[in-house]
Amino acid sequence: MLSHIKSNKEICFDLISCSLQMVIGYICIDLMAAISLHYLSSYGSNIQVAGFGFSNLLNAIFILPFGFGLNQSLNQQNSQAGSSKISPILLNFTFYTHALYFIPLGTYLYCLQMKMHKKQLNMHGSHFPLIVIGWLIASEFEALKVYLLPQKVFTPFAVIHFITLALHAFWCYVLVNILENKVIAVCLSIIISELSNHVLFYIYLMKTQQIGYFQGLTFSFIIPNQHDLYQTFIQTTIPQVLHIYSNIIGILGLSVIALGLGTDDFNAQLGMSNTAHAYFRIPLSISITLMSFVGQQLGQGNVQNAKQYFKMGVAMYFSLIFFSTSLFFIYTKEWADFYSANTNVSQIMEDALLPFLINFVCCDGLQMIIAGVIKGLNKGQWIGTQVLIAYLGIGIPLEIYFAYTWDQGVKGIWVGFGIANCQILLFFIQTMSMIDWEKQSQEIQNFTQAQTELVDLKKPIL
Prior knowledge:
With 462 residues, the protein is an all-alpha fold. 83% of the residues lie in helices and 0% in strands.
């Protein structure tokens, strides 16, 4: 069914509103982590701080990318389905797949830590399951957020995140003063805060009478009865997850290579990686937004709207490139000095600024946005593979070559990373140029219809 042709004003409002609430959510997650570390470092020992950080690092590398990719897959498939009868089933699949992945892998990592560090339980052990549970609850809440993107339900999530951020500070203060194990206290505060997100969201739905968006949702384990539909769900999810893991490998490679350059270079690289991590939230949010709206419009057969979302999203990001690069050039010294009082570290960061901006702000951000559109077009099957090949086959070898053989240090790392990102960007542009939007729209509608028929042929889901 064709929807009305949207004006540029409507499209711009959709993109900014959705992207902004997602950025706010990510910022609140980072602030929650900062509050946790503040109380832990104030009340706990250095070993406890290190153990908490190490456990979170394990989660960030091995567990969270899967959860993030799974939620992106839900976003893509739900948007293309147009909130049809399969939408609540896809959400059910997402909830249970999170648990089926988080719990076994978390248990394995926990046992591995216990085997390797039997004498360092405070640093590596007892709190790890609580961290996994906290991130599992957080991932389930993110699933609810992306599920409602096609319905343009944005406002409550930003408000909810701010409320739970304040509650998190309160619970950290209370629990670290009550419990002897400060790491356990902080982990329990995180779990309570993440559960508060769900409770506040449920209250919002009931107060605004928007619970109807979840009509047909069941919390029963329906995967065995819907295994054919679940198979198509997982087939679409795997490329999304691979894409996220590939990006993690590329980013980790930067810091690993910098380890051999010396203390000053490594500290400079850490500062630039932190900057990249903070900035990355913006193109990522735009990418997820475009994936949702482009997929939704194509699922409705409205190719013109889908193309306008793509054009406006890219134009919005080019404006952001101009604004952000201007700020970096104007405040170069202030930016470098913020991360280190060491003049050598600051100088290294200033020298590497240009390749950093060309690579991360321009190429990497733009390829991330185009990747979201390609996924919305249901053509993202090879995105993860291409990114992995580019980082392992081009990026890391060139980073080592420029950093060590050419003696360019941190600047050489970012030049090598930038070349890999340029290759990825060119591949994505080539992919976009070969797509027939009309044909892809029809294929998406046919795919959604096939999924619906799979449900119709099955037993009742309750």
